[in-house]
Every structure is written in C-alpha cells, then in structure tokens.
Amino acid sequence: MTKSSSNVMALAPPAPNKRETVCIFGTGDFGRALAHKLLQCGYPVVFGSRGSQQPSSVVPKDAEVLSHAEAAQKAAIIIIAIQRQHYNFLTSLAEVLRGKVLVDVSNNLKINQYPESNAEYLAQLVPGARVVKAFNTVSAWALQSGTLDASRQVFVCGDDTEAKKMVMDLVRALGLTPLDQGSLLAAQEIENYPLQLFPMWRFPVFLSLGLTMFFFIYSVALTVIHPYVYQKKDFSFFIAITIPNQVCPVMALTLLGLVYLPGILAAILQLCRGTKYRRFPDWLDKWMLCRKQLGLVALAFASVHVLYTLVMPIRSFVNWRTSNRIVSQALNNKTEPLDNTRAWISDSYLALGILGFFFFALLGITSLPSVSNSVNWREFRFVQSKLGYLTLVLCTAHTLVYGGKWFLVPSSYKWYLPPIYMLSLIVPCAVLVVKFVLVFPCLDKPLTQIRQGWERNPQHSK
Ligand code: NAP
C-alpha cells in the first residue's frame, strides 16, 4: 500500500528548482533521520522497505513507503540504510538498480571486520550500480537533532566521478561539508573512522599518565618521605598543592621538549642518510603526527601550574612560614636587608615564567583549526617552529633560574637523587643544544639541501 502523498509538505520553504526525489532503503534509525533532514531541505523522499504494506508510524509522514523495487524506480540516488549483513537481497534487484547511484552509509562493529569494505562488497553484489560511500561518520541522532557541529564533515569516495559529484551536491544541499576521499578503495579507511577513539591522543595521554605517575611518586619520596624518615617531620599535606605544583611544570616542560625532539631526531636521520626520500621508522612517524596533541597536553599542565601558583599566597603553610620569619626577626630585633641579587633572580624567574606561558598559550591558540585555517603554511610554520622554540627557551630558562643556584649544593640531592625540576631540564636542554648545533652552517646547509630534494647517494634512496 502506498502512503498517500496528498499531505506531503517539506518543512523548508519550497526550493525554486524542484529537488530530485531521493530513495532510502530501510526505515531504521538512520534511514528515518536522513529522511527527516532531506525533507527539511526540500527533497521528496521515498522509502524502500520490507514493511511497505504496513508502514511504520515513526516514518516521517511526508515520505512515501514503497517496496524496494518500486521505490528504486522513483529516484536516481538510493541510500542503503541497511546493515551490511542484510545486503544479499539487493542481488535480486540488480536490474532495477542498474545505473543507479547507491550510497553506502554502513559501519562495522570492529576495525577491518571484513576483508573488503562494505561499499566494495555492495559494488560486487550489484555490479551495474554506481556505488558511493558517504554519510557513515554522521550519526542518526546528530542528523535528527540538528546538533551537527562536531560531524559536519562527510567523507565521500567512489569510482564513478559523476555519481560522486551527485552525492557531494546532495551532502552540500543538506548543509554538510563533503570531503572527497578518492576512489572506492578509500572506503575501508572511511568505515574505520567512527570506530577510532581519539587515535592521535592515545600516545600523548598514556605517556602523560605514565610520566605524571613517575614524577608524582618521585616527588613524594623526596618531599614527604625523606623529611619524615630523617627529621620525623610530617609534610604529607604537600600532596595537595606543593607536589602537584612541582609535577605540573615538570610535565609541561618535559612534554614541550618532547614536541620538538622528534623534529631534531628526523633532522639527524636525514643528515646521516643524506636523503629525505627514505621513510622514517614507524615510531618516529607516529610521534611526529601527535606533536600537536603532546603540545596541548603540555599547555594544560602549564595552565594548572599557573593556577596552583596563584593560590600560593593564601596557603596556611606559606602564611605560617612568613609570620614565623617576621616574629623571629622581631625577637632578634634585627631586620634582613634587601638582597638585590635574590630580588633580581626572583623577578627574572617570574618574568620568564609569565612570558613563557604567554607564548605557550599563543602556540595553543594557533593550533586551533579555526585559527590555523586563517594563516598560510609559512605563517603557521613560523609560529609553531620559531615561537615554539622561543617558548621552549623561555620555559627552560624559567626553570634554570628557579633552581640553578642549587645545582652544586650537595644537600639538594636527597638520597643522591636530583630534585624533580632538574629532571625536567633533561629533554628541553638536549633539544636546545642539538638544535643550536644544527643551526651551524656546516650542518644547516646540507640539511636544507636534503629537504629540497638533494641526495648524497641517489642509488640508495628508495
Ligand atoms: P536499524 O535501525 O537496525 O535499521 C536497519 C533497517 O534495515 C531496518 O529498519 C530495516 O528496514 C532494514 N532491514 C533490516 N533487516 C533487513 C533485511 N533482512 N533485509 C532487508 N532490510 C532489512 O539500523 P540503522 O541504525 O538505521 O543503521 C542503518 C545503516 O546505517 C547501518 O549500516 C549503519 O551502520 C549505518 N549508520 C548508522 C548510523 C546511526 O547513527 N544509526 C550512523 C551512520 C551509519 P525496513 O524494516 O524498512 O526494511
């Protein structure tokens, strides 16, 4: 039974040019959500369903519900909103589907679940149809509720250029952004996208968790356990503010160093190999790809350090220490003269920290897509490389000025271990020293040539 179309009325104002009917196979969650959006945008929708005799009450009332064969005849674009395991019945419709654009929207439950992508499988089942992969990264909920901010991009791929263009036009008409990913070979990758959970964040997050745990335990050992063992002093309350405020800057500086370390390693590799045409090891490739995420985690640690530092003056321990000093000065009837060197060191340390954090925040802001899209490649590289190194220099100097005077004091090495801030200097100092060496013309010149395509031994390049 065909649903009456007398009351068919698109929610959007009628378009000047009548839109082509779009057919959707399957009246499930995704089919209905897409139909809702298509109707809103002025597209007549016809469903191909097993239940065409008794259409479901949840199907949008402005859409027709027909059998698969009847519905397919009414449209040039057919969206297959059915799970892959039910595709078999489509072989019986091969004749009706000949020349039609079949849009595969399906996803899988596991990465690389099948040997071929669902879209390629569909193309094998209906060889006469023009299969295009699209819409699989958009959720039914987002389509229906209109909250598409996070998923406005629609990855599209297919072997038939005209069919792909038709689908991309449809995507655009729905207010979404089509991204052409090439031939149907790309479908497997596109089908894996929704199954990936923050792939670029995994390494930075696990690394940060591991390092934070290590530095926290290290700091507790030196700041709480050591005074308890040797002086019977209970500084366990340091765990709330003092220790996090030691760990956060150490993490920020170490991670910032780790953002620039892979670039240094890549430069050394290229210099040693004398070519840029040999692939970097996999681990280095992956490390380079997640530098932005490492930098953002570092910025988060730096921001927390700033917050902790701001509350220092209202801490009861700090108040107690200050008043104790004043009282002891009063009792001894002597005041401490202003130590100009100390004042200089303290002010320089604070100034370097403020400037370092300012440039750090600037780096974070320029890495936002909305900002990075508005600058050209050269400007982006200038900010991320030159300003990035300036930030690293300022933050390293901030730490050096803070603790430099205790480097040669034996009592600062409790249990023969260096204080935690000294550990944070290892990676950034190594990066800055090697970077400084790489700037020398005898290394910089060949490196620039290599990066422009010159090769020392062309026969070994591939
Ligand atoms: P669903 O709610 O389970 O609906 C699937 C529809 O397929 C059913 O309503 C049914 O429609 C049809 N169907 C079921 N068994 C069939 C069979 N044996 N033969 C023929 N048709 C059959 O699934 P869905 O969530 O709408 O997902 C549909 C497709 O969209 C899937 O491939 C999914 O991976 C993809 N997708 C879904 C989302 C989402 O957010 N849900 C997002 C992106 C992509 P009729 O009863 O009308 O025949």
Features:
462 residues, alpha/beta, Rossmann fold, 2 domains, eight-stranded mixed sheet, 18 helices, 8 strands, 54% helix, binds NADP nicotinamide-adenine-dinucleotide phosphate
Structure description:
- It is a single chain.
- The protein has 18 helices and 8 strands.
- With about 450 residues, it is of the alpha/beta class.
- It folds into 2 domains: about 20-195, Rossmann fold; about 200-330 and about 340-450.
- The chain has an 8-stranded mixed sheet with strand order 3-2-1-4-5-6-7-8, sandwiched between helices.
- Strand 4, helix 3 and strand 5 form a beta-alpha-beta unit.
- The chain binds NADP nicotinamide-adenine-dinucleotide phosphate.
- It comes from Rhinopomastus cyanomelas (Common scimitarbill).
- It is found in: Endosome membrane.
- InterPro entries: Fe3_Rdtase_TM_dom, NAD(P)-bd_dom_sf, P5C_Rdtase_cat_N, STEAP_metalloreductase.
Overview in brief:
It is built from 18 helices and eight strands.
